[in-house]
Amino acid sequence: MLKFSLRARCAVAVAAVASTVLLTACAPMQQGLVKVGRSELQLPPGDWEKLEQGDSDLFNVLPDDVSHDLPMRTQAVGLRGRQGEMLAVIVVQTNASNDPRDTTLWTHTCPAQQGVQVDDFAKGSPIRIDCLRFKRRADSEDFLKKNRPVLQEWVKQNNALPLAPYSHVSYRYATAEGGYLLVEALVDQRLMRPRTVGTDQFLAAGRPAQEWLIDFVQAAKDSVAMLDGRFVVPPFPVPLPE
């Protein structure tokens, strides 16, 4: 069991796709686990490939004498369709290791935003983060350019932008013990919403995207709590398009 000192500190959460991300060649992956720092990413069935692997990012931690206590790792993966089109991109950033960490006070907030579903499960806690943000039509109103410009630039440079319409999911979870995970996803809406005709089919379809978000959030929390950091990404609610 990890033991943590009682010395408190403050940390500022940084962007998931930092400027220090190192570009590597895209390579098809076999079904299995993808290593991301202390975590292991278990992906649902599909034609997944590694897109980028991040260098060691250091969070801005105060006081300065412990500023190197929170090294992070970043990994991006993409899901290709039958025609080679990008259907989904997932970017994960988490602690580089399970090394013992001091008690951490997180300064990141989870503010409400018009047109975005925001769930602050931590209810403004000063010692942890538990924030879900979901934009159903992230391809409209220059959403990525205004809110996630680094992510937008990265997907364009790597030809990794899903077909429109697509959704944006961001979930950030951090504990008072210094555990941290940020996962962002751009997902083709065909994987999130079934095609329906008429009111009866629409009502029968339920709310698959919301149910998937619940499973997604729980999987991320489980990853931070588990010693091996296993992050089991739930299958998308709609089968891959033909």
TrEMBL record:
The keyword Signal applies. Keywords: Signal. The keyword Signal applies. Residues 1-25 form the signal peptide. This is Uncharacterized protein. The lineage of its organism: Bacteria, Pseudomonadati, Pseudomonadota, Betaproteobacteria, Burkholderiales.
